[in-house]
Amino acid sequence: VLVVAVVLILAAVALVLSLRGVLVREVHAAVEQQAAQAVEQLESGAAPAAVAARGGEEAFNQVLDEDGDVVAADDVVLGQPPVAVLEPGETRQASVPFDDDDDFLVTAASAETTDGAVIVLSARSLDRVGESTSALTGLLAVGLPLVLVVLGLVTWRIVGRALAPVDAVRREVEEISAAELHRRVPEPSSGDEIARLAATMNRMLERLERAQAQALHLERL
Fold this sequence. Notes:
Elements: H1 2-43, H2 48-52, E1 59-64, E2 70-73, E3 91-96, E4 99-113, E5 116-125, H3 127-175, H4 193-220
Antiparallel strand pairs: 1-2, 1-5, 3-4, 4-5
């Protein structure tokens, strides 16, 4: 049970980390697509304010000028400095001023507009990543102990039933004395190693009984 517990714990950790990696990659792909759409709109002539007008707390954009100053931003970060200092093409996690609990994945992309080059900072929340991994961790924290308890009980019962014939043989051997060599240990019908052991002990008792009978016969002569 301890060995299985270690294996299950390692498997559970690997599962949680794998799930988190998959979800983070999905957010990464989504935020890169978000930045690419913003760049396409800006290079098509859209105003920075229109690109940044997303109005949501799960995803937002900031548009920076060449000096790194914010020229347009979503309402949730309006009037705030850049949420991250990134070169175009870079992506990393960052905290945001309106959400102290969850990090955001932020990526930077450059765009050429009629007013010059700008940098788009696109961000998406990692809140669902945390919620999903926390939910899975909670299920595993409840489920794994239950599995181990059931496994322990089943193993205890199966091993106990498998070794019950050994205990019967042991009790019988303890009760056999030199005057009771005619007695035999019970032989289970399982045909396994325990049955063969019982048969061997019975043959040994039979040989002892014959040897004792021969010794008594010689004494009478």
